[in-house]
Amino acid sequence: MKQAHHPEVGEIALTGVMAALSDPIRVGLVRVLADGRERGWGEFRAPVAKSTLSHHLRVLRDAGLTRTRQEGTRCFVALRRQDMEARFPGLLHVVLAAAEEEDLGRQVSMKDDPHPA
Amino acid sequence: MKQAHHPEVGEIALTGVMAALSDPIRVGLVRVLADGRERGWGEFRAPVAKSTLSHHLRVLRDAGLTRTRQEGTRCFVALRRQDMEARFPGLLHVVLAAAEEEDLGRQVSMKDDPHPA
DNA sequence: TAGCTTGTTCGATGTTTCACGAACGTCGAA
DNA sequence: TTCGACGTTCGTGAAACATCGAACAAGCTA
């Protein structure tokens, strides 16, 4: 588990962000992170193998959408809302609203938080 | 040249739109169409073969971002601004602003319109 | 009719992506 | 030090994608 790379704000590329958000699972991950809370890796519930989940979280991280922090042997993931807002103002908001409208990424939830309402 | 398919407003999918906008050429195409003017296919200038350009315009069309109209043997392409606005309010605007910020898709221009400013 | 123009489609190629299970490295607990 | 938990990485396929040139179809034009 080496220290993961995170792009700086200025390095965040629009194409990377768009590509990252072109997958339903990843949109779901962003949605559950949308409230700004940092989440433990193991809390995520998605219908894929853990290696695949790791892959998706890596794509989000590489694109600059999320930040991963390590603490001992476990990881915490958070949305880089402010960085995204600084780089591409309004983007995250409209994408989240659009995803909500479509209920895209509903397959993703958090443990002990069945995403009910 | 058969009649191309266009998704209805309600059928436009967020993932499709995001995927379509994850390529610099396609973002460039959207940018030159952003003023709302309908453009002739042959006016586009992009550093790819015409078969590749055709492919990119098809992806944009299939995603619901553009509309293609045929007139005799030639085609005219226009951005579906209103439809996009109805489906995903604000999305096109923020994406265009972000693309502007990054000068993404500058490789695409129009004949007799060298994208000067 | 013959030929030109226009854009699409086809086939091939190389790259990237998504998916999985298995193996691995690291850390904390026993 | 041994064990278990936690994520990452690897190896592998299947599918999708970007790209090109060549072939094609449809419509003008001569």
Automatic annotation (TrEMBL), chains A, B:
It comes from the Bacteria. Residues 6-103 form the HTH arsR-type domain. Coiled coil: none annotated. Pfam families: HTH_20. Keywords: DNA-binding, Transcription, Transcription regulation. GO terms for molecular function: DNA binding; DNA-binding transcription factor activity. Transmembrane segments: none annotated. InterPro entries: ArsR-like_HTH, HTH_ArsR_DNA-bd_dom, HTH_MetalResp_TranReg, WH-like_DNA-bd_sf, WH_DNA-bd_sf. This is Helix-turn-helix transcriptional regulator. It comes from Nonomuraea turkmeniaca. The lineage of its organism: Bacteria, Bacillati, Actinomycetota, Actinomycetes, Streptosporangiales.
